[in-house]
Amino acid sequence: YLRNLAYERFGSSNMEGPGLQLQWDRDHGDLCGAWVMANEAGRAVGFASATAAPQWPGPTLQLDLFIHPRFEAEAGALLEPLAGRSERLIMFMETGHTAIEAALASAGFEREGTLRGHLNAPDGPRDIAVWGRPPA
Asked: What span, in angstroms and rounded, lies between the C-alpha atoms of 50 and 33?
């Protein structure tokens, strides 16, 4: 249900409006990176963005990652561009996506906590895991 926290995308929603904001942010320095993962037919099946997160100490980026459930085992591909970044990284995601969680752990992230029932979804509250990667 949580698609992209920085651009307030939840559930089945259109990225057209937020896509324009994403382009603006890219052009004005607030977006530090965005990546798309495509399947063999060239269709987008995953999206990641890293945005400046000035509310956290030091240079910090907020990572948002959404992958179609059938491609979650390939989540590591969307994390590869972050390997050389020196900033602290923070990510909020729904719990229960074990393949994505494994990819985050392999990329140096640690699960720092769980916000129980903090996300309102149409089928009821959902838990959010907080993941972080310390600065290099």
From this structure: 5
Q: How far apart are CA 33 and CA 22, in angstroms?
A: 10
- CA atoms of 70 and 114, how far apart (whole Å): 24
Mean pLDDT of all residues in 61-89: 91
Report which listed range, 8-12, 18-22, 78-82, 127-131, is most confident: 127-131
Contact (Cβ atoms closer than 8 angstroms) between residue 132 and residue 110: yes
Q: To the nearest 10°, report the CA torsion of 77, 111, 94, 119.
A: -140
Q: Residue 117: exposed, middle, or buried by beta-carbon count in 10 A (0-12, 13-18, 19+)?
A: exposed
Q: What is the pLDDT of residues 38-67, one digit of tens each?
A: 889 988 888 888 888 888 888 999 898 988
Instruction: Say what the alpha-carbon torsion angle 40, 32, 95, 70 is, to the nearest 10 degrees.
Output: 0
Provide the whole-model pTM.
0.79
Read off the DSSP letter of residue 108: T
CB 79 within 8 Å of CB 68: no
